[in-house]
């Protein structure tokens, strides 16, 4: 019913966004029966973003709530830079994501071999330390793909609930939302982010969920979100949240 993690600008070929491209995304969202879609391009494509154009095309889709967010790369020493970006536009929501730490971009295909060489507990530990700082920064409404560090299928020796404990505490204390991000299924790990045990723990702690496909093209909008909602319902989650003007909007599941 909602997809709050959608990219208009692709990684490999950062294209010029035009009305036709935006329309394709919104058409796909409508076909899939979504009530709300949230665009959240990576902050490093700032100069290619065109928010007025999104607003303009959205007027053609009166039944769809079209939100504008940002997926900001969280690096602990760059909080000021993110803050400056957020002051430049009235975003509906902001996803804080960790794709790198200590100068290592760990989610690129080239990083896979290094994952297998490094100590898994150490990289999980360091990753969740940075996620904890992101949650404490006060910059975000949402933490993106909570256990992204698993993407190549390398598992820690330590219990994932212990590794993620502090990050979850920070998320709960700061009222942040976590997404079920279905894109993990299409990575070597082949499962949603976060894994089911974490999803259950998140629910137990009373943290709210949102849903995201992490689509980088129109066809992927809403992918597997029906299944993600069913999974949430099965474990006892009754609602998910969208965002307008940085405030949560609750949607009943099922
Ligand atoms: Zn991401
Ligand atoms: Zn993303």
From TrEMBL:
SUPFAM superfamilies: PHP domain-like. Keywords: Amino-acid biosynthesis, Histidine biosynthesis, Hydrolase. GO terms for biological process: L-histidine biosynthetic process. Coiled coil: none annotated. InterPro entries: Histidinol_P_phosphatase_HisJ, PHP_dom, Pol/histidinol_Pase-like. It comes from the Bacteria. It is an enzyme of class 3 (hydrolase). Pathway: Amino-acid biosynthesis; L-histidine biosynthesis; L-histidine from 5-phospho-alpha-D-ribose 1-diphosphate: step 8/9. The keyword Amino-acid biosynthesis applies. Residues 22-183 form the PHP domain. It holds the Pfam family PHP. GO terms for molecular function: histidinol-phosphatase activity. GO terms for cellular component: cytoplasm. Its EC number is 3.1.3.15. It catalyses: L-histidinol phosphate + H2O = L-histidinol + phosphate. PANTHER family: HISTIDINOL PHOSPHATASE-RELATED, HISTIDINOL-PHOSPHATASE. Belongs to the PHP hydrolase family. HisK subfamily. This is Histidinol-phosphatase. It comes from Desulfosporosinus fructosivorans.
């Amino acid at each position: 019913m909602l997809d709050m993690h959608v990219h208009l600008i692709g990684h490999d070929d950062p294209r010029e966004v035009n009305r036709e491209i935006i329309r394709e995304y919104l058409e796909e969202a409508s076909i899939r029966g979504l009530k709300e879609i949230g665009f959240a391009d990576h902050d490093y494509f700032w100069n290619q973003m065109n928010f007025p154009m999104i607003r303009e095309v959205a007027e053609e889709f009166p039944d769809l709530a079209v939100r504008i967010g940002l997926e900001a790369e969280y690096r602990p020493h760059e909080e000021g830079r993110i803050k400056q970006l957020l002051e430049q536009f009235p975003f509906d929501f902001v996803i804080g994501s960790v794709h790198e730490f200590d100068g290592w971009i760990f989610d690129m295909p080239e990083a896979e071999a290094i994952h297998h060489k490094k100590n898994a507990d150490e990289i999980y530990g360091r990753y969740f330390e940075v996620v904890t700082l992101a949650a404490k920064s006060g910059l975000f409404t949402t933490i993106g793909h909570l256990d992204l560090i698993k993407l190549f299928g390398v598992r820690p020796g330590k219990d994932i609930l212990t590794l993620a404990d502090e990050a979850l505490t920070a998320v709960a204390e700061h009222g942040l939302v976590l997404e079920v991000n279905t894109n993990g299924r299409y990575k070597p790990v082949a499962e949603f982010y976060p894994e089911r045990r974490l999803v259950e723990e998140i629910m137990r702690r009373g943290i709210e969920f949102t849903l995201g496909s992490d689509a980088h093209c129109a066809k992927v909008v809403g992918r597997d979100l029906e299944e993600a909602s069913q999974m949430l319902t099965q474990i006892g989650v009754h609602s998910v949240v969208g965002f307008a003007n940085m405030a949560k909007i609750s949607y009943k599941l099922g």
